[in-house]
Amino acid sequence: MSAGFFPPTRASVVEAARSADAGERRRALETLVAAYWRPVYRHVRRKWGKEHEEAADLTQEFFAELLERDLLARFDPSKAKLRTYLRVCVDGLVANAEKAAGRLKRGGGVPLLSLDFEGAREELEHALAAPGESPEREFEKEWARSVLELGLARLEIALAGRGKGIAARLFEIYDLGAEGEPPPPYAALAQRFGVSVSDVTNGLSLARRELRKIVLGLLGEMTGSDEEFRLEARALLGVDGP
After folding, report:
1. For position 4, what pLDDT does the model report?
2. What is the Cα Rg of the chain in Å?
3. pTM above 0.85, yes or no
């Protein structure tokens, strides 16, 4: 793949979290929460065997501690990937919580984030019925899924803002349709949306191109070094670095 797919600069959340600007710090936390809350919740349940409410409680506490203890300031990209560092921080939080006799009760003094824990609980408990991978591998896979979901949400907003909402719908139906079922023919999509087959081709091409740019931008935000960024881009999208 061409190096032109890569953003010219990376606006890392690690740097943003250290910014003196409160808006930059808030943006960094919002990005991290969007990408990591499901992996953190799932990891706490899978590795540490916590029940739903306690895992939700610990997930909230983790993001509160991320800011209060300035954990990102301690991250060294030469030693580990950002997501590995964050997973280790989660393990430290849970281990300390187990040792502490007076851990805060749910919501006690910790500002609560608006997160769909019930939805995550349903997904996880369904998955628990089948043999799983290691908690560490599941953390990585859940993180990748969260990044793609966040990218899709941004894609929909971006295309709608450009009057190209139909491209997002075509992509959703054709590329993200029901698993195990073949995608509908272009002609059927053209008839459904009242456009030409060429419009379907162009719409899908646009959506795929924009999604790749958005996901690369997200990876740029959520990696701590250019090398980590290249590795993640290759692993998630199969593209080589600039």
Report:
1. 44
2. 20
3. no
